[in-house]
């Protein structure tokens, strides 16, 4: 019976939707009112010791027949380099709070093998500190190390940081050199705690704030006036709230705000916004009716951010403290036949719309949102890449990120056009969202994420002070709602040249197909 239900679902999801008359919607691009810089870190990634993210996904070991550099997959490195991954968070997630960094240094054969208590299976520790920083160097990215504050101590954090960064003659620096790395590693960000309200110790915000103060005190960050000697430059990120928990935000900021540079937020797109119902939603072969609900839950990111920003603005009006959405993305039922704890799911055109729509939301909140890390890089949740043996697939989410590359460190430009609202089971959401920015290459880029599965839209955006005569870009779409790519099979979905744009009478005219991501550059 279950097989029949899912077969019917596949049939429904693969139906092409009927062509419908397009509406013309007028809007404006306000290049005369530039906003904040869109931190490239908004396009950050997350790699956790979970399922096949690290092992199989990133690490195959130096003796593997799969092409690798010092054990790290070449195909994955090439693909991630191509999207200029700005920062990677590691080693978790919930895994971070059971991780002993000492397990992952020194000769591989001597490293202890542990049970992965969170996600199941065995942790060989073949991928540890040196391997992570090697991976980061290979893909040319900044590093965000999540330290264990639940089952480890401030002393353990301090020792790991010293091992990573010391330039002195101390024993930990010597140990790092003996393990093959003469120079200190570059640590960009340090996460103190992960989901402290949940897998990181089920703490109350009051208790966490005190614990955080203790850990942050021993971090000795440069610029801190508390210590006589400060030698760490990594920014400190406090474990922040889940979803709409503004009480967590308020208590932790009030009690520990001065000791942090950023606070994290976790928001996943799950069925009915209820994590316990996540198995209701399938990654592929979903009923047509599921499309809007998932897109609505993704759109809720905007409301969630507004709630937290209102609290942050009261306590930190100068916006010194960044909001890092260091886990976000879709969370569905795992693929049949895979280990449930490994969180392996396919990734479709719908996920690309979630990705592009969410990036548009982050851009609109860029005065506070300074980093975001989609979960996760390879083979877990809303992955960029899927691997099977020596085969690799680039997901529609990967392609959305690729199309948004020009937005990295670009300057936000307000753009608006009134989108009709679409109905889902739990609420309404705009049919499309937009972003515009002046990029570092001097061009202005406009992105449209049209989440309307039935209708395309003709947009007429007044260019205002913007001078442009040429439009070119890419479109990501498909006739199939659940178009996806599978390792070892011919690609079903990838960006194509976009031919629906022109400039006429001081307006940018865009003919945006249904269920499509469009990014254009103006010259
Ligand atoms: O991304 C998977 C898990 O989701 C992370 O380990 C945890 O932080 C969150 O609950």
Automatic annotation (TrEMBL):
Keyword Hydrolase: yes
SMART domains in the cross-refs: Alpha-L-AF_C
Annotated InterPro entries: Alpha-L-AF_C, ASD1_cat, GH, Glyco_hydro_b
MF GO annotations: alpha-L-arabinofuranosidase activity
Signal peptide start and end residues: 1-21
One of the GO biological process terms: polysaccharide catabolic process
EC number(s) per entry: 3.2.1.55
Span of domain Alpha-L-arabinofuranosidase C-terminal: 326-516
Catalytic activity: Hydrolysis of terminal non-reducing alpha-L-arabinofuranoside residues in alpha-L-arabinosides
Keywords, ordered alphabetically: Carbohydrate metabolism, Glycosidase, Hydrolase, Signal
Family of this protein: Belongs to the glycosyl hydrolase 51 family.
Assembly mode: Homohexamer; trimer of dimers.
Protein name per UniProt: non-reducing end alpha-L-arabinofuranosidase
Originating species: Novosphingobium umbonatum
């Amino acid at each position: 019976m279950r097989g029949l239900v899912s077969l019917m679902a596949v049939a429904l999801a693969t139906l092409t939707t009927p062509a419908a008359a397009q509406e013309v919607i007028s809007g404006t691009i306000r290049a005369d009112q530039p906003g904040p810089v869109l931190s490239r870190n908004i396009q950050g990634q997350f790699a956790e010791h979970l399922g096949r993210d690290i092992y199989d996904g990133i690490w195959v070991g130096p003796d593997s027949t799969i092409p690798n550099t010092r054990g790290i997959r070449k195909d994955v490195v090439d693909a991630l380099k191509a999207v200029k991954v700005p920062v990677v968070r590691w080693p978790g997630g919930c895994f971070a709070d059971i991780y002993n960094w000492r397990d992952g240094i020194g000769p591989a054969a001597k490293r202890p093998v542990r049970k992965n208590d969170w996600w199941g299976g065995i942790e060989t520790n073949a991928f540890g500190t040196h391997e992570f920083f090697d991976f980061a160097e290979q893909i040319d990215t900044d590093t965000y190390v999540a330290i264990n504050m639940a089952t480890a101590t401030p002393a353990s954090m301090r020792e790991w940081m010293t091992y990573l960064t010391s330039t002195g003659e101390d024993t930990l620096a010597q140990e790092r050199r003996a393990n093959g790395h003469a120079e200190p590693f570059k640590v960009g960000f340090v996460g103190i705690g992960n989901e402290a309200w949940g897998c990181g110790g089920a703490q109350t915000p009051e208790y966490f704030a005190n614990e955080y103060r203790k850990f942050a005190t021993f971090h000795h960050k440069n610029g801190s006036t508390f210590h006589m000697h400060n030698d760490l430059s990594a920014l400190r990120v406090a474990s922040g709230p889940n979803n709409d928990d503004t009480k967590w935000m308020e208590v932790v900021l009030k009690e520990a705000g001065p000791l942090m540079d950023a606070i994290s937020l976790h928001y996943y797109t799950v069925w009915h916004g209820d994590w316990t119902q996540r198995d209701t939603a399938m990654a592929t072969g979903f009923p047509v009716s599921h499309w809007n609900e998932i897109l609505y839950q993704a759109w809720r990111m905007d409301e969630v951010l507004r709630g937290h920003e209102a609290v942050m603005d009261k306590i930190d009006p100068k916006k010194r403290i960044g909001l890092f959405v260091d886990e976000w993305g879709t969370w569905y039922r795992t693929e049949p036949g895979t280990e449930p704890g490994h969180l392996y799911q396919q990734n479709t055109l719908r996920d690309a719309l979630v990705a592009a729509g969410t990036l548009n939301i982050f851009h609109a909140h860029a005065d506070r949102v300074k980093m975001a890390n989609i979960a996760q890089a390879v083979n877990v949740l809303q992955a960029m890449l899927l691997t099977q043996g020596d085969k690799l697939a680039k997901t529609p989410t990967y392609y959305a990120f690729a199309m948004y590359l020009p937005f990295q460190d670009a300057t936000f430009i307000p753009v608006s056009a009134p989108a009709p609202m679409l109905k889902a089971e739990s609420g309404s959401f705009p049919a499309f969202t937009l972003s515009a920015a002046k990029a570092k290459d001097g061009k202005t880029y406009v992105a449209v994420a049209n989440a309307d599965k039935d209708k395309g839209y003709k947009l007429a955006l007044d260019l205002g002070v913007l001078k442009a005569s040429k439009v070119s870009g890419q479109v990501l779409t498909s006739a199939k709602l659940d178009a996806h790519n599978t390792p070892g099979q011919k690609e079903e979905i990838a960006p194509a040249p976009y031919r629906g744009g022109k400039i006429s009478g001081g307006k940018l005219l865009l003919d945006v197909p249904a269920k499509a991501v469009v990014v254009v550059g103006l010259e």
